[in-house]
């Protein structure tokens, strides 16, 4: 990941509906959610949700999967991981123990690891 890609991902999340959409997708990993269900859950018109999802997809944070006539969306955990790793790449100038509280805070929410489905 480079600076431009990280900026695009962070910019995509810097909007309330897109942030909530991404959080909802993360909560529904690994099965994902159909776009219409996302729109209903967040009380957003379908065409507006499509625009938000396209922005998240271009930023590498969302994966689209076609299931017949339905498009199911999933959070790209690999994309999120890349952004976080980019931000923490030089964590504390090589003093990893200073980043230990951050790693520890993430551990309880992800005890079993993540799915690696692209």
Structure keywords:
118 residues; mainly alpha; disordered C terminus; single chain
What is the strand tally?
3
The run of helices and strands is HHEHHEEHH
Largest sheet: 3 strands, antiparallel
Round the Cα radius of gyration to an integer and report it: 15 Å
Number of helices, counting only DSSP H or I runs of 4 residues or more? 6
Mean pLDDT: 87
| Structural class label | mainly alpha
Tell me the β content. Answer: 5-15%
Poorly predicted runs: 113-118
- How far apart, in Å, are the first and last alpha carbons? 16 Å
Strand order of the largest sheet: 1-3-2
Helix content: 40-55%
Sum up the overall morphology in one term.
Answer: elongated
Description:
- By secondary structure, the chain is mainly α.
- The chain has 6 helices and 3 strands.
- The chain has a 3-stranded antiparallel sheet.
- Strand 2 and strand 3 (70-75) form a beta hairpin.
- Helix 1 (3-13) packs antiparallel against helix 4 and helix 1 (3-13) crosses helix 5.
- The longest helix has 13 residues, at 46-58.
- The chain is elongated and about 50 Å long.
- The relative contact order is 0.16.
